């Protein structure tokens, strides 16, 4: 037992040391040639604003689109951003957090690659494969000018998914443990990079069927594997489902809404522009998903909010006290102007207006599906415990 612990510790240390060496040497080259650290830094700062504001699943980026805001995080899988955000909270330094993110992904890639390879070819070959798997992404980055951390952050989960499915099909005990792990790891892969996870899905299906035939397993083993895949897809639905459905609302390259025909070349000087009648801004408060303002308005006044409209934005008005929700009324948002900005008509007097970026029906469905995935894992665990 002591020998096994010592052996595993040495292997763990070897992977850690080699990951440190690869990261220290190649990360600087990556910054010089391929990886736009300032662009990624801008994304992380925006992501952090949402997290600090209490939005644990960021969807709106208020400072993107030349300051008019875009639904950037709906269409960009964000597991890599979560990794960097957690490391930023620990280090409180954005650049340190980015460096640590690359190191952590490199190390996890090597560790999970070793676990997979060891099952088929032993510890020494497993270590060799681990080293190759860690270094190849950095070497191949020289051929890829559009290197992204999202794609890089998907690498650890590929061998982990394959290892967990292998263990699930070949272990006599702990099937539920490996079913949960395979579901969770495939969900992490989807959350890292949608295109990579989709391409990998076809390879994974072939891998599952091949293992089932090679090890002459019963048909119910494949059924268990498919259940695991379905749960993994369900767990990650809060990211991929809104992105798949709502991509019709954004322009082909990027996350600017399709109804935006013209974008101002500079950031808006303020969020409020009077259109008709007289409207004077008295107070405003802005957060990533909400714009709260009080105005002094004449009869028939309308204003423009310098934020791109996108499904989910809703406008409410109070005549007097904002704490009295019974007097709150929803008002219609128009966005037919060529800039795709939000125009609203406001009542006269001193109305208080609250614009909130809320969940649409498809986002609610996606969130519920993800909760269902969690409940399914818990239900399977309870059934297994009760059958013992």
UniProtKB/TrEMBL annotation:
Residues in Membrane protein 6-pyruvoyl-tetrahydropterin synthase-related domain copies: 78-263
Keyword tags: Membrane, Transmembrane, Transmembrane helix
Cited Pfam families: PTPS_related
InterPro entries in UniProt: Membrane_prot_PTPS-rel_domain
Organism domain of life: Bacteria
TM spans (from-to): 9-31, 72-90, 97-116, 122-140, 147-166, 186-210, 222-241, 361-383
Protein name listed in UniProt: Membrane protein 6-pyruvoyl-tetrahydropterin synthase-related domain-containing protein
Organism for this UniProt entry: Candidatus Schekmanbacteria bacterium RBG_16_38_10
């Amino acid at each position: 037992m002591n020998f096994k612990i010592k052996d595993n510790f040495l292997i763990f240390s070897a992977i850690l040391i080699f990951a440190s060496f690869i990261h220290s040497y190649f990360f600087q080259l990556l910054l010089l040639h391929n990886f736009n650290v300032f662009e990624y830094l801008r994304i992380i700062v925006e992501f952090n604003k949402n997290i600090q504001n209490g939005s644990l699943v960021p969807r709106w980026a208020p400072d993107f689109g030349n300051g008019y805001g875009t639904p950037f995080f709906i269409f960009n899988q964000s597991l890599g951003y979560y990794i960097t955000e957690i490391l930023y909270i620990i280090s409180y330094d954005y650049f340190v957090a980015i460096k640590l993110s690359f190191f952590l992904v490199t190390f996890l890639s090597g560790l999970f690659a070793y676990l997979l390879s060891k099952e088929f070819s032993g510890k020494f070959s497993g270590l060799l494969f681990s080293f190759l798997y860690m270094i190849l992404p950095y070497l191949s980055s020289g051929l890829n000018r559009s290197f992204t951390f999202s794609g890089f952050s998907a690498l650890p989960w590929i061998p982990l998914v394959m290892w967990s499915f292998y263990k699930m099909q070949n272990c006599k005990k702990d099937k539920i443990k490996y079913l949960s792990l395979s579901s969770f790891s495939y969900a992490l892969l989807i959350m890292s990079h949608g295109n990579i996870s989709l391409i990998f899905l076809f390879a994974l299906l072939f891998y599952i069927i091949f293992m089932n035939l090679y090890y002459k397993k019963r048909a119910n083993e494949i059924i268990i594997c498919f259940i695991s895949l379905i749960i993994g897809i369900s767990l990650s639905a809060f990211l991929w489902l809104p992105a798949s459905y709502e991509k019709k609302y954004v322009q082909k390259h990027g996350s600017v809404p399709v109804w935006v025909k013209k974008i101002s070349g500079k950031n808006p000087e303020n969020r409020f522009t009077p259109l008709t009648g007289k409207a004077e801004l008295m107070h405003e408060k802005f957060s990533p998903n909400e714009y709260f303002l009080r105005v002094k308005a004449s009869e028939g006044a309308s204003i423009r909010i310098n934020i791109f409209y996108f499904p989910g934005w809703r406008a409410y008005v109070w005549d007097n006290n904002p704490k009295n929700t019974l007097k709150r009324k929803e008002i219609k948002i128009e966005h037919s102007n060529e800039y795709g900005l939000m125009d609203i008509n406001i009542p006269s007097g001193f109305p208080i207006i609250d614009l909130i970026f809320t969940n649409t029906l498809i986002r609610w469905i996606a969130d519920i599906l993800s909760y269902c995935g969690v409940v399914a894992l818990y239900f399977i665990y309870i059934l297994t415990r009760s059958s013992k």
